[in-house]
């Protein structure tokens, strides 16, 4: 078991990269795999890639593998069946070598796979390993993106189009080649273009455009009235690219961000305020607080100013107050003092929660990518309603809705973490 752990640690660099260098020929081999089997193939390749040609076998924790792919971590029957399918799937390639000579070859996708003591061990044939590792002819398959797909045909089309994103087009494929890439060759039903277009092409194109970082559009060639060839025009998906951008560096360069940090506001809270209110509004409240002289809690006062939209009052001579007005003002001051104390208590609670979330962030940073993925899946399994699960999927360990459960989860893993 110690040797297995060392091997898994050695491969963590590949897992951290989150992309698979996938040989073009290899992309063409698994059209008949199910969606989960195709994802499994990608994750296994990602895990093995750095040692693909130097190690004869590769290992990965079986539960982690199942969760990365989307299986129930205890569903070893499905995992075994999928590994069997990969071992029974034939890979075929037909390409030119460095001297321009034609090379044809065939191999099973996995030469063997076994599950023992909670570890999955597997191997590729030497010839296929060389093809998978060839840096000259590959597409980058993003394992994060593949999780968005719900159909094998959609993911197969994405894999076969992505490698052409720089050229803008796949080039023309005869329909029989396209059917093979989609895993529907040999089907009488899909020999009809009408059925192929309605059940395979249109749904797969829609899923690629919705779920991935590229946009594709099919074009058809005809001989007479019969469609004979298909190609896909490809460009980057600007909406997806927008969501992928981490703008933290841009926010951190703003003057208002730097002012907030100088006032003792945490990095995360400063970015949250700017994102929520806009930099001009935040700057207005900073100016307001600066005009109030010394205050006991700049952070609390600024938070209240943002929440309640405090404004600089207009200067005017007030009328002489009546006794009733004086008493009402005194009562308001008492109520305000009570509110301020309550606000201070809530601010202290938020500060403590922020401190604990920072501790969680530090704990997560110490985990390797395999452990992080397993931690997330284990935490999700403990949530008992869809709202909590969806909020955690969106915000991860920063999910305020699940803060109490998150602290309890990490307290159990690291009893002294928050002391």
TrEMBL record:
GO terms for biological process: DNA replication initiation. Residues 313-349 are annotated as: Disordered. Residues 19-161 form the Initiator Rep protein WH1 domain. SUPFAM superfamilies: Winged helix' DNA-binding domain (SSF46785). InterPro entries: Initiator_Rep_WH1 (IPR000525), WH-like_DNA-bd_sf (IPR036388), WH_DNA-bd_sf (IPR036390). GO terms for molecular function: DNA-directed DNA polymerase activity. It holds the Pfam family Rep3_C. Residues 327-349 have a biased composition (Basic and acidic residues). Belongs to the initiator RepB protein family. This is Initiator Replication protein. It comes from Ruegeria meonggei.
């Amino acid at each position: 078991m110690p040797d297995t752990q060392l091997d898994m640690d050695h491969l963590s660099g590949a897992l951290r990269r989150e992309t698979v260098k996938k040989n073009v020929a290899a992309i063409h081999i698994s059209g008949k795999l199910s969606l989960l089997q195709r994802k499994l193939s990608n994750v296994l390749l990602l895990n093995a890639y750095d040692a693909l040609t130097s190690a004869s076998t590769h290992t990965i924790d079986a539960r982690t593998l199942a969760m990365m792919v989307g299986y129930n971590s205890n569903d070893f029957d499905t995992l075994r069946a999928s590994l069997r399918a990969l071992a029974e799937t034939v890979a075929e390639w037909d390409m030119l070598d460095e001297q321009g000579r034609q090379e044809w070859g065939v191999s099973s996708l996995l030469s063997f796979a076994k599950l023992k003591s909670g570890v999955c061990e597997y191997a590729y044939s030497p010839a296929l390993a060389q093809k998978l590792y060839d840096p000259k002819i590959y597409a980058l398959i993003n394992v994060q993106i593949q999780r968005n797909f719900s159909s094998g045909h959609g993911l197969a089309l994405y894999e076969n189009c992505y490698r052409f994103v720089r050229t803008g087009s796949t080039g023309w494929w005869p329909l029989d080649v396209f059917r093979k890439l989609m895993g529907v060759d040999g089907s009488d039903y899909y020999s009809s273009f009408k059925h192929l277009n309605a059940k395979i092409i249109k749904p797969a194109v829609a899923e690629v455009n919705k779920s991935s970082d590229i946009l594709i559009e099919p074009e058809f060639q005809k001989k007479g009235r019969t469609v004979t060839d298909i190609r896909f025009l490809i460009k980057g998906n600007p909406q997806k690219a927008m969501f992928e951008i981490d703008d933290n560096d841009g926010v951190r360069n703003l003057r208002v961000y730097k002012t907030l940090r100088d006032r003792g506001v945490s990095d995360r809270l400063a970015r949250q305020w700017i994102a929520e209110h806009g930099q001009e509004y935040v700057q207005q409240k900073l100016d307001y607080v600066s005009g109030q002289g010394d205050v006991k809690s700049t952070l609390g006062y600024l938070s209240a100013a943002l929440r309640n939209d405090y404004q600089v009052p207009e200067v005017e001579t007030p009328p002489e107050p009546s006794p009733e007005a004086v008493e009402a003002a005194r009562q308001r001051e008492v109520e305000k003092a009570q509110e301020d104390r309550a606000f201070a208590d809530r601010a202290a609670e938020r500060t403590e929660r922020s401190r604990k979330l920072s501790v969680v962030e530090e704990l997560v940073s110490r985990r390797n990518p395999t452990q992080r993925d397993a931690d997330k899946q284990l935490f999700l399994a403990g949530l008992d309603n869809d709202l909590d699960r969806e909020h955690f999927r969106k915000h991860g360990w920063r999910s305020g809705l699940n803060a109490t459960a998150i602290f309890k989860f990490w307290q159990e893993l690291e009893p002294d973490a928050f002391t």
